[in-house]
Amino acid sequence: MNTTDKLRELLVPVLGVASIDDITPESALVNDLGAESIDFVEILYLIETEMGVKIKIQEIAMTEYSSDGNNLEDGKITAEIAEKLNRDFKTERFKEGLTVKELFETFTVNDFAVIIDRKSEK
Amino acid sequence: MRFILVDRIEELKVASWAKGVKCISMTDEIFNNHFPGYPIMPGSLIMEGLAQLSGVLFEYSLITLGHNHKRPVLTLVNKMKFRRFAHPGDKLDYHCSVKLFYPDEYAVATVTAKCEDKIYAEGELLFGFADILDEKLIKISAEALESVLKNTIIVASDESHI
Asked: What is this model's ipTM?
């Protein structure tokens, strides 16, 4: 089973959805699945115990891409960072002008799997 | 009733473990209804006492280790089992052992409640850490923590686990 599917399975009881089909790889944890900050504690713990990978909440909040002032203009990500995000997460959905809050709210199951894979390779 | 469900925190070792005591008394109003003529301490309240003990341990550990004063919030109860009925007259020994402690993120404690060395309840509790935004509330929390640890022996970090 690949990381995305394993993650979808783990998320079912935490997010209280009826079936694994309600969680697609493109679902955003906060915006689509209604995850609250308190849920992330449980999710991160489950990933650590079930998959043996320690993920920090900062990684999900994408602070790596937004904490440096040069990456932001008026609190929004620059075109350069959007491009880097698209490259790192193998997607095209990141656009210049996303706020830090929007980055967190639109964080998808796929993005999560990319971080887990990246970490477990190390 | 006062929602303080651990009578005394006896010993504590920062980021490691804590020991507390809960004496169950027939004077507790809970026994009017739980159950009429058959008083047993609700397992949920034993668990809350264990959570309070763990919360104090994590809150004190955060401060002692130089992190911001945050409020540990119970987020998940895992594998909790209630093995025996606790009755008035029982003295429950609560023990909390730190399984994971990430000061910026979350913490996990393994907890047990024993009476005369028999396990009454055991499980695993997960806590998140909530910011206390108001200076006044930080002060109140610090005072509450000080008062609850007034008679507690703080074990030095180089002493071995009990």
From this structure: 0.72
